Amino acid sequence: GFCTNLLLHQTPQHILAQANNKTEILCDLKMEHTGVYWYRWSQERQNFEFLVFSSSLGKATYGANISQDKFSVHGMSSHTSYSLHISHLHTSDNGTYYCSVSQSSQLLLGSGTQLGVVDVLPLSLKTTQAALPEKPTWCVTKSKAASRKGACSPVVWVPLTASILVLLLSLVPTARRLHRLRRRLWLRIHRQ
């Protein structure tokens, strides 16, 4: 089965990147392992796709129809940190990416990194990677006067609250689908 686990720490949680650029997702492991699996959940295609397995010896095994030019895994010499590099970004790369290790017939999943690829980045973003801080800042007010009031304008927090609710509700069917797919995926991996 699948388990999300605190022994796998994935960063960043969200990436907004421009098409034709590249990006990187980090996975820190606090456990022994033989290597790291990387998967992508596509909401649009409704599938959970195996991308690549990188052994602790550095050998990579790619999933069906997965381009080695697009995806590569780099491990640190300590074998506790791995990074998935995605190049030539396209909107078809949108999805949630998971690092994973196999332990006692279970796949332990990282927390996931949501990747969004756009043709043009919003002007407010100066980099191609938008990482959320460890402790989320719910609102940021620009003027000192507003910060003295102790609350953000409803113009900020109402859409933010609505977005969070929509995100949480969208996770329910995803969790159900992942639950159904976990056994099939586990069997497929161990048949290889």
UniProtKB/TrEMBL annotation:
- Cite the entry's keywords alphabetically: Adaptive immunity, Disulfide bond, Glycoprotein, Immunity, Immunoglobulin domain, Membrane, Signal, Transmembrane, Transmembrane helix
State the source organism's domain of life.
Answer: Eukaryota
Q: Which InterPro entries match?
A: CD8B, Ig-like_dom, Ig-like_dom_sf, Ig-like_fold, Ig_sub, Ig_V-set
Segments passing through the bilayer:
156-175
Keyword DNA damage included in the entry's annotation? no
Cross-referenced Pfam families? V-set
Domain Ig-like positions: 12-110
Q: Tell me the membrane topology, using the record's own terms.
A: Single-pass type I membrane protein
Q: Where in the cell is it found?
A: Membrane
Gene Ontology CC: one annotated term: cell surface
In alphabetical order, the GO MF annotations are:
coreceptor activity; MHC class I protein binding
GO BP field = adaptive immune response; regulation of immune response
| Protein name listed in UniProt | CD8B protein
